[in-house]
Structure formats: C-alpha cells, structure tokens
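Lab notebook, bench 4. The sequencing result for the construct came back, and we need a structural model before the next group meeting so we can plan mutations. Quick request posted to the team channel:

Model the 3D structure of this chain.
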Amino acid sequence: MVSKLKIMLIAFALSFTATHAGADGVKVGFIGSLSSDAGRSALRGAQIAIDELNAAGGFNGKPIEYVQADTGEDVTEGIKAYEYLAETEEVDFILSGSIDDVSLGWMPRMKEYRIPTLDTWTSYIGIIDMIIEDYEGMETYFMNVASDEALATLYVDFGKDILAKKMGWDSVVVLQEDTAFGGAINGLVSQLLAPEAGIEIVDTIVYDIATVDFAPIFSRAVDTGADFIYIISSVNSQVVSSQYSKLQVPKAMTGVNVAALGQEYWEDTGGAGGGISTLSPVPSVGFALDPASAKFAETYAKRYGSSRPKFPHFNGFNAYWGVKQAFAAAEDAGGFSADKWPKEMLKQDIKLEKDGELWLRYAFWQPGEVEERTGRTYPHNIKFDITPPYDNGAPAMVVIQWYEDGTTAVIYPPKYATGEFSVPSWVK
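Done. Here's the predicted structure in token form:
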C-alpha cells in the first residue's frame, strides 16, 4: 500500500517526450556520474518518475523539465555541476546520485543556494551529523538511503549470527579503500564488531583506489592469520573482487563491495566474482520485490534493458520513489520553497507491502526523534528499522551473496533471505 501520494494513482503508460516539454514548469536537476552504473541508475529512476508525473499532468498543470550535470565522481567537477544546476539552469529541486566525497564537496553550495536536494546514494553519517549541528543551514537536504551507522549495526548482527555463531570465526583483517566512505565504514565497524560480535580486528590494510595489483595486499591479509577478510570498497570494486577469485585467496571475503550491488558485476569480473558476500542497501540484487517496486523494475528493464545498468541499483529505486515524494511535498507546500518544502517532505511516508506485510518503507526521521538501538537522532535520513522483526520499516541493509555459478541471493536477515551464506570452494 502506498500512502499520501495522490499523484501516484496513474497508469504506468509513460510519456517519453514530456520531460523537456517547456520552460514554464518546474525544473529538476540531476547531479551524479553519468558514466557509472550507480549514477545512471539514479538518473533513470528519476526520469521514469518524472515521465509518470508529466503523463498525469505535470506539476500544477505545467510540465516538469529534467536536466543533468555530470560529476565524473570527481569532487571539483561535482562542485561545478552543482553551481551549473543552481546558476545556469536555475533548477527548483536537485536529485543526487553522488558518491560520499562528491556530496561533501558540493554541500557548502547547497547551503548557499538553499535548493531542496535529495541524495540517493551517499550514506555518510557525517552528513547527518552536519544536519544535527546546523539544522537551519541544512534543512533543505534529505538522504533516502540508510546512513553508515545503520549499515554497521546490520553487519554486527550478521557477524554475531552467521560469522561468529555459525562459522565459528573470531578474527578479521580489514581491507579498506582510501576514501571518506571507506574511513567511515571502517570506523563504525571497528567500534562495533569486536565488542558486540566478539570478532577481533587483527589488522587494517588501507589501499589506494587506483590499485591494480592486489596480490601483495591479499598476501599480507592471509599472513595475519585472521579467519576472514572484510573488504570496504566503493570505487573500482570489480578489480579487487576478480583478483580475489583468480588468486583463490584462501580466506572468505565479505564486507561492503559496491561493484557487487549490480547485476553487471558478474560480467565485469569475467565470471570471477563468485564467493563474495556484501552488505547492500535495499532493494538489492537477489531481493524479493514488492508488487509496486517490481512494476517500476519492469518499466525500467523495458526502457533501458539494452544498456547498462540493465536493472536498477538500489539508488534507482530511491530516485524513483524520492521524486514522487518530493513532488507530493511540493504539492502540499505550494512549490519548492526552502522554508516550506522541507516541512512537507518530512511528512512523506510510502509503505510498500508484500504478501500482506510491510516490506519497504520510504519515510524520514524527524528532528529530535531518537532511534532506540543506537540512542541517537538521524534527522532527514530515511527511516530505517534495525531491530527484528522489522515491522516499522525495511531493514537498513541486507547481506547478499554471489555464488560461483553467477547467481545471487539475500542471505541475511532471515526475514528477507532467499539463500544461505557459503564460502568459496577453494576456501577450507
């Protein structure tokens, strides 16, 4: 069931030419990497939502225009892209598919221009902390993917239930890329994995994102004697993945591997990506979809199935539902004004059911609202549920596994599982 979205009661017959229908209507800007699967996934998810809104009459009877600005996953280019959308295109709303470092780069521009902005990929908890510290300056910013701290709690649960209890592992070596994302995840995991899951971190190996030869790094990791490897990789993740398989590293490897979040992962690794498991925001590959999300995915596949990504990443879903929420909020606020729109965006709540139970939820934490497990606030972050049985919303993340035959499954938590955790055949 979908609540509080009057404009969503439309057929999924799309208007492919309505997006750039005229300059008199509302203008949406996309900012992200146009050459990455994650960037294009968000770009296309928003495109489908805008086409549906235009097919239903646009906004206040006027067409919604959609323009884009490429960041190239570069901080400097990201700042220029945000300035272009704000100053040249004069957009009313910005949909972001940016990575953490790029979002941090253009954040001061967002505060300056006060343009309502929704991030669909970035999960950096530091941005949520910026909202807490400067709510007035950051009020126009929303993040509809669970932030890093929520991600870490799910992995601690997986560590306790599967890695420690089922597998009997009690030590790990961390392989971390040298990025803001990598540092944030490593910090959270380091703080929680040992004390809560009983798994000791025996070493941390930080590597440059331009690394092409991982043999020495894997050799060092194996020499630590740790029971398994925890990978943290968001850039060029297919390289470390394929080398792990080709070198048949004699340790199981799990963690956060962004390349493994898309269906192109198997092709990108030359079929050498089996055995790897990774934490993933929802919906993920191997995730059983609710009817409404499945219908969006079908629409996406029909339109974009001949080019990559052939199936939307999680942030493609986030972009689709996020645009619907942004315009529902604008309808109630009378537009995208910085003083009214955020208050209405906070009220948006999309509940998606599967087989009669809550499956996915797109809502936001309110300012001052405390999440019980972590004891902290997450203003303007998607309202995740990190405590079973997940009856107040979807879990922040799931753990997925790529098997050696190229198939995938959700392996944790049990409510969403479609398969089981296993180690590669070459690991004893």
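The first helix runs from residue 37 to 55.
Will bring this to the meeting.
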